[in-house]
Structure formats: structure tokens, C-alpha cells
Amino acid sequence: MAADRGSRGKRKDIHERALGLLAVRQRSSRELERRLVQAGFEPEAVADELDRLEQVGLLDDEAFARAVVESRLQCRVSVTSSERGVSSSRRARSIAQR
Fold it and tell me: Computed from CA positions of residues 38, 39, 45, 47, in that sequence, does the dihedral angle turn out positive or negative?
């Protein structure tokens, strides 16, 4: 019984740690895996937690990749248009309309 409580406690700890990392910013599953293992959690427990987070939609590598691409595109558009003399308000409107 005590071992069972310890197991549940570890699951709670890893889940809370994972949620804390995801609260800061969106992360890839590989990045989250690396951070949790570095924090001292067992690789098997980390794999189980990643599966759990994927099942409930809190961890999504495809969405993460889309967000990275979108962010980089916005940054590139902003820099390029700024270099070409487009005002900051027009840049912001253009990016917002995307």
C-alpha cells in the first residue's frame, strides 16, 4: 500500500513538473522529455507522462511545429518590412491579418 502511494506521488510530481514547464511556453515532446529526465525522473515514467499529455492534447508536436514556423515567419516579415521602411503600425496590421 505504501509503495502504491509512493508511485502515485511520483506520478503527481512528474505531472506537476511537466505542467509547470508547459505553462511557461509550448514545448516539443523531445524537449519536455529531455527536461524531465534531467530533473531526475525515470525515462519510463517520463514516457508514460508524455503519452498522457498527448492523449489530453497538452502536448502536440505538430501544433508546436506550426507555432514555431508562424513565429519565425512573423519575425522575418517584421524585420524585412522594417528594413524596407514600412511603419511599425502597418507591419503589426499586416501580421495580424495573416
Answer: negative
